[in-house]
């Protein structure tokens, strides 16, 4: 077992909280920071060192994981006035698990390299349930020689840790996955809504879809229709889970990447518009499976 020197963790939200907790469970002393002080409180009770800025984290730990909402937050945390790179130690390993623009990951990797540190992108798939259970999938981009060092930490939080290639390729894999997820969630919601209006019982319809060719993760693991499954956001007024704003953000990243590579993504574009409309119509903080409620056009929020 490698030495358990402190590991920094920045961004203790829906995902970061259970991920950092899993590091603690595996015996790693953690040094935490979140811009929202409440998020750090429970880590203090777990014996973590709570700091005042990302730079403070970098002073106290030479392995740091970040789990932030989007590209501007990651840029602020790494290269801002009180950012990690202000005080990073030479040889530090910086792992960003946020979903951000791959070109921003590349910029941050260059900036880290200039300070003698190594930056890897390692976005995740699996959601809050998988973060709690420690069985996330990590898609890792960066220098291959550093992959094993990153894997040592990531396996405390995930069951699949996949090396994708140079820095930014983890984000590329993540963006493709989430574009497909959005399309399949909208498709599931559309089909379920149509079936219900045709008089089918939603549970029965879900059962049939899940034994037929329409089956997908959105239908069998994360069904968007209230009452079909337990323990999913649709069973809890679409609270928790993966926010509609974050899905709209990921679809925006897919659009930028598609434009840059001249790749046709007609359904990805449509999905982006739908999730942006949802954000504008009051669904922003709900789980992305609330697209079912949006398509129903009858429930009040
Ligand atoms: N929620 C999911 O199911 C899920 C699944 C896979 C990937 N992701 C991705 O993981 C990332 C995090 O998602 P989340 O759901 O945990 O988001 P979240 O909004 O719940 O958490 C983000 C945390 O970062 C903190 N933060 C923001 N700016 C900061 C700053 N400048 N310095 C320090 N802390 C700062 C916030 O206070 C918050 O606690 C996103 O990029 C998201 O797309 C989320």
TrEMBL record:
Catalytic reaction annotation: 3-hydroxy-2-methylpropanoate + NAD(+) = 2-methyl-3-oxopropanoate + NADH + H(+)
EC number: 1.1.1.31
Signal peptide: none
Protein name as annotated: 3-hydroxyisobutyrate dehydrogenase
NCBIfam families recorded: HIBADH
Domain 3-hydroxyisobutyrate dehydrogenase-like NAD-binding stretches: 168-294
Transmembrane segments: none
Listed pathway(s): Amino-acid degradation; L-valine degradation
GO biological process: L-valine catabolic process
Subcellular location, principal: mitochondrion
Record organism: Zosterops lateralis melanops
């Amino acid at each position: 077992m490698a030495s358990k020197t402190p590991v920094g963790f920045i961004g203790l939200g829906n995902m970061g909280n259970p991920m950092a907790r899993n590091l603690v469970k595996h015996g790693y002393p953690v040094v935490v920071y979140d811009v929202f002080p409440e998020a750090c409180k429970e880590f203090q009770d777990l014996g973590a060192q709570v700091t005042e800025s990302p730079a403070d984290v970098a002073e106290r730990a030479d392995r740091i994981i970040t789990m932030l909402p989007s590209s501007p937050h990651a840029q602020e945390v790494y290269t801002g006035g009180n950012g990690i790179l202000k005080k990073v130690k030479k040889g530090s390993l910086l792992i960003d698990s946020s979903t951000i623009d791959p070109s921003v990951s590349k910029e941050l990797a260059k900036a880290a390299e200039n300070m003698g540190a190594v930056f890897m992108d390692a976005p995740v798939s699996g959601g809050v349930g998988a973060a709690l259970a420690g069985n996330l999938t990590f898609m890792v981009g960066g220098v291959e020689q550093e992959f094993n060092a990153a894997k040592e930490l990531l396996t405390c939080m995930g069951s699949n840790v996949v090396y994708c290639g140079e820095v930014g390729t983890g984000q590329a894999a993540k963006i493709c996955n989430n574009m497909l997820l959005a399309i399949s969630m909208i498709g599931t919601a559309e089909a379920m809504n149509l079936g219900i209006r045709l008089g089918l019982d939603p549970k029965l319809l879900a059962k049939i879809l899940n034994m037929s060719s329409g089956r997908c993760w959105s239908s069998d693991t994360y069904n968007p229709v209230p009452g079909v499954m337990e323990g999913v956001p649709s069973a809890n007024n679409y609270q928790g889970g993966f926010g509609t704003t974050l899905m709209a953000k990921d679809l925006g990243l897919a659009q930028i990447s598609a434009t840059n590579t001249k790749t046709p993504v007609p359904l990805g574009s449509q999905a982006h518009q739908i999730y942006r409309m949802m954000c504008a119509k009051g669904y922003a903080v709900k789980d992305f499976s609330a697209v079912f409620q949006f398509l129903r056009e009858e429930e009040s929020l």
